[in-house]
Amino acid sequence: MVAGTNATATFIPAFLASWLQLLAPDECFDEFFVKFNILHVPCLKILISKCLGYAIIVGSFIVKVPQIIKILKAKSGEGISLISVTLELFAISAAWAYGAGHKFPFSAYGEAIFLAIQTGTIAFLVCAFSDQLTKGLAYISAYVGIMGFLLSPAAPMGLLAALQAGNVVTVSVSKLIQASANYKNKSTGQLSVITVYMLLFGSTARIFTSIQETGDTMVVLTYVAAAICNSIVAGQFIYYWNSPKTDSNVSKKIQ
């Protein structure tokens, strides 16, 4: 029998029960697999939240890979605003540091780790394909150093809270800068439609999971802002679907 469950026997093998407890912890495991009360509403909310959370984390492994591949194939970051990418990286990293610092469940913020790695890679590629390799290397080095501090015990909780509080503005400005760049170019350039729509789904689902798993108003508002702004960029893919790509010199001006 797995520790923390009801003394009544369950038909679930011990090795499987430990994994199921990631989705239905403690009392909810008992409700579902001991008492067979599968309609227990509070536990159903937890189960749905956990499933969505881990699904988002799994998806985050590849969410920006299509974007990275598109840049590599084109050997260009045309249409991608480096300012927008940097602000997005800031927001992702603040969420990562805040979630880790407050010891939230990994299912509540884990995707931030993988999104940060991929977003940092995109920023580096935008620099590299703009003949600014040194700038790209300095960018990544500075980022690694900053995150090393934010994830360390030396980082003040007040600082992490301030960074998270600023995320609503940061996320909004990041996406609106990219939306503005798309509008000026009359094209979505090298943006990946798969990546944008996966981010829209993830930010929307995170509203529910954040309410369930953190109850943190700042975190919830951040994902509400992200969902709204991601929907704007996603809508531009439909609007500019058949638009020709713009001259690369125009896109470089907005980076």
Automatic annotation (TrEMBL):
Pfam families: PQ-loop. The keyword Secreted does not apply. Keywords: Membrane, Repeat, Transmembrane, Transmembrane helix, Transport. The chain crosses the membrane at residues 46-67, 79-100, 106-129, 136-155, 189-208, 220-241. It is a multi-pass membrane protein. It is found in: Membrane. GO terms for cellular component: membrane. One of its GO terms (biological process) is oligosaccharide biosynthetic process. Its main location: membrane. Belongs to the MPDU1 (TC 2.A.43.3) family. This is Mannose-P-dolichol utilization defect 1 protein homolog.
